[in-house]
Structure formats: C-alpha cells, structure tokens
Design brief:
This protein is mainly α. The protein has a domain at about 100-265: MetI-like fold (Orthogonal Bundle), CATH 1.10.3720.10. Helix content is about 80%, strand content about 0%. It is globular.
Length: about 325
C-alpha cells in the first residue's frame, strides 16, 4: 500500500505544475489587455504613454517567461499577487470566499451521494418495476435539465409558495440555521445532475454485481438479502460509484459559478465572473489554480481509496 500511495503522490506535483503553466500561458494568449480594460473603464480618455506606463506598473510588458517565474515564486509562498481590479491582495479577496464555495460543494455532493446510492440500489434490486421506471425517469430528467434552470425554478417556487427566496449568505458559526436555509436550495440545484448520474451508475454497477456467481453463493449460505446486497454487492460496486462521485465533486466547483451568481452567494464563482470581465489575470489564475489543485487532490484521494477497497489494485 505504501508503494502504491507513493506512486500516486509522486504524480501530484508534476500535475499541479502543469496546471499552473497551462493557466498562465492561456491567460496571456486570450485577447485583451488588463491595462486597457482599467484605463477604458467608463469611456475614459487616455494616451498611449499612460497605457504603456500602466503596463510597466502591472508588469504585463515583460517577457512571459519572466512573468511566469515571478508569479510561480509567489504561488509557492501562498501569494498569488495583487488583483489588478480590486487593488488588493488576491488571497485577501478570496480567503472568506473559498470556505463558502467549499461548503456549498460539500453539501451538494453529500446530498447527491446519500440520496442517489440507495435510490440506485433499490432500482437495481427491483428491475422493471414501477419504482425502477420512476427512478429512471427521474435520472433522465436530472441529467437533461441544466442546473441554472433548476435554480431559477426553485427560486420561483419559493417566492410563489413560500413568500421568500434564500438569497445571500450567513456564516455557519454565527447563524447555523440561517446558513442551512440559505444553502440547502442552492446545493439542491447543484446536486440534481450529480444525484441523477450517480444513481444511474449505482444501478448499472449493482445490476452487474447481482448476477455474479459469488452473489448466488452468498445467498446459498443462508445469508439475509440485506447482508448479501450491502456486504457483498455494494462493496464490490463501490469502485465505479467512487470514481463517478470523485469526478462529480471536482465538477461541482465549476458549477458553483452559476449557482452562486443566481442565489447571490459570495463565493469564488461570483468574483471569478467579475475578474473575467475586467481581465484581472492574477485573480483568474489564482481561482483556476485553486480549483485545479482541489480537483487533483480529490482524484488523489480517490486513487488511494481504490487501494483500500480493492487490494488487487495496489498489488498490481
């Protein structure tokens, strides 16, 4: 297990380094000049001398290699530079927003897994039953409907029938009940696709496992159906479920951009939209790198869990 874990961890740093290079280069290839965006705000008049002076101040006139190594040196120290638009440290702007996005994503994946896995198991145990048909229709709708449509629909329903919309954000350690009320519906909108997808994968994996010879052997030993399904069936079906859940969790960080904007949640998504609009390179780079590192870390944990769940993987 230690050798297996060491190999997976050894791939972590090169992957993160590659993410930083791709993000930095792509941001420099995208048309647009942050200095021009700042000077042109509000249709202000400026001269070429003022434009070049601001470019020198921002450092965007230097060779891209020099800019990268200066930037990555700060990233290693946990400093992503200063925001070109907000005129403050990037981490100062993000330190209160990162926990909000993480809380929303964790709540969404928790809801998706807790609801989808039992849903998929029951659907697999009773194939072609009314319950199975209903589950399959639900999963198809969940995959087909975009999460922003679900978010807008939830807000309309809450305003129409509840007379309120859970907009804004209160810190969970200050107002836990208000925080739950504000995030439960955004998390629901964010989790619907993941819930439907995980339920379909669970159903497919369980139906394949239930037909295996060792499942019939377990039943012939007199074990109860619950023990057979949970201990022998679900345990062996966990690898595809874990794979999809890990991938979906990483995907959630991208989906929060839209949901946070709709529900007015002050997370990383809302400030990323503003940063893109104003060509705020340091802010965009920091957010994409943070999200990329989070996704790579999740994939690393999933790989390590593979070795725990199935010893054949780590021995191979």
């Amino acid at each position: 297990m230690q050798k297996y874990a060491a190999k997976r961890i050894a791939l972590f740093l090169p992957t993160v380094l590659l993410i930083t290079i791709i993000v930095f280069v792509v941001m420099r290839l995208v048309p647009g000049d942050p200095a021009l965006a700042i000077l042109a705000e509000g249709d202000a008049q400026f001269t070429m001398e003022e434009l070049r002076a601001l470019q020198r101040e921002l450092g965007t006139d230097r060779p891209i290699v020099v800019q990268y190594f200066e930037w990555i040196g700060g990233v290693v120290r946990g400093q992503f530079g200063d925001s070109l638009w907000f005129k403050s440290s990037v981490m100062t702007e993000l330190k209160d927003r990162i926990p909000v996005t993480i809380e929303l994503a964790v709540m969404a994946i928790f809801m998706a897994v807790v609801i989808a896995v039992p849903f998929g198991i029951i659907s697999a145990i009773k194939p072609d039953s009314p319950l199975d048909y209903g589950a399959r229709i639900f999963t198809l709708l969940g995959i087909a409907v975009p999460n922003f449509i679900v978010a807008v629909g939830l807000i309309l329903l809450l305003v129409r029938f509840g007379g309120l919309a859970p907009l804004g954000y209160e810190k969970p350690w200050e107002e836990p009940w208000t925080n739950l009320h504000q995030l439960i519906f955004p998390a629901m909108a964010l989790a619907l696709y993941e819930m439907a997808f995980i339920a379909r994968v669970t159903r497919s994996a369980m139906m394949e496992i239930l037909r295996e010879d060792y499942m019939r052997t377990a039943r012939s030993k007199g074990l109860t159906e619950r023990v057979v399904v949970v201990r022998h069936g679900l345990k062996n079906a966990m690898l595809p479920i874990l794979t999809v859940s890990g991938w979906q969790f990483g995907r959630l960080f991208g989906g929060t951009v839209v949901i946070e904007t709709i529900f007015l949640i002050p997370g990383m998504g809302r400030i990323l939209i503003e940063a893109i609009f104003h060509r705020d390179y340091p802010m965009i780079q920091a957010e994409i790198v943070i999200i990329g590192v989070a996704i790579v870390t999740i994939n690393l944990l999933v790989d390590l869990l593979y070795g725990v769940l199935d010893p054949r993987i780590r021995y191979a």
